[in-house]
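ok trying again, last paste got cut off:
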Amino acid sequence: MVSIHAMVSYFNIYFLFPNILKKRNYGAYAVAILLTISLATFLLTLVLMALNTLSAQFKPDLFSLGFMVNAGIAITYTTAVTMSLKLVKQWYENERLAKELEQLNTETELKYLKSQINPHFLFNSLNSVYALSLQKSDHAPELILKLSDILRYILYDGGEKKVSLSQEIKYLKSYLELEKVRHGDRLNLEIDIHGNYDHYEIAPMLLIPFVENSFKHGLGKDKDTGFVNVHLHVENDQLHFHIVNSKPKNGHELSKQKGYRGGIGLKNVRKRLNLLYPNKHALELGDIKNEYVVSLQLELD
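nice, full thing came through this time. structure:
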């Protein structure tokens, strides 16, 4: 009996299910499984007759409707249980594959976003060096040295999933000093960084796009002075990052210059925040009369 039940179960799992039911031929599957169970019931009757383990008075009952129905119900029950186990196993396998695929897609997208960050930053920094070299500024060597430190961070740490927050802040300070040298007296720069951040980690190059945009779009092509205020502090496992920068005079905005092409910085960092810190961050962008404001609150690892 166990052998016949097993034969029906395996035939259903490894033939009927993949070749008929998975193709959504529900009618054909119902007919096929009904015929299989009926054939198995008849085979069970023949086997019991052949084994000759029943007395002669009980043998006629093997061909009765009651025995056939009970035997068919028993085989159906076994088939249903094994089919349920197969479906549960397949569901877990599909869930595992779906999670692996989601993780792979996430990692692929993050790698793509990071590949956008590095050339984007490098392009802006080289423009700064080029501008100072045209002016034959004494600050050009200092600027190149700062750029070298920054590129070292990008090459060796930018590819990691997480870096220490202290490294990210050091990189941020180097960039701010680079911009301070570049803009000189026309820039009023205020930097306020405090809190105990030595034991935290963060995704690399997550904060720099906000700072880049503050200088790039805040000062624009305006020759007058402007300001950028950067505030960062860590408290109770939360990073609070706040940037306020002036607006250039009307008509001097970078977005209104000939040949301007929209940047990828903010769009990029929004995607990275959503991928890396889902439900663990709050980002607010403000555009008021004379200044732009960026406020980011992040739950740290």
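cool. The first helix runs from residue 2 to 21. The two ends are 59 Å apart (CA to CA).
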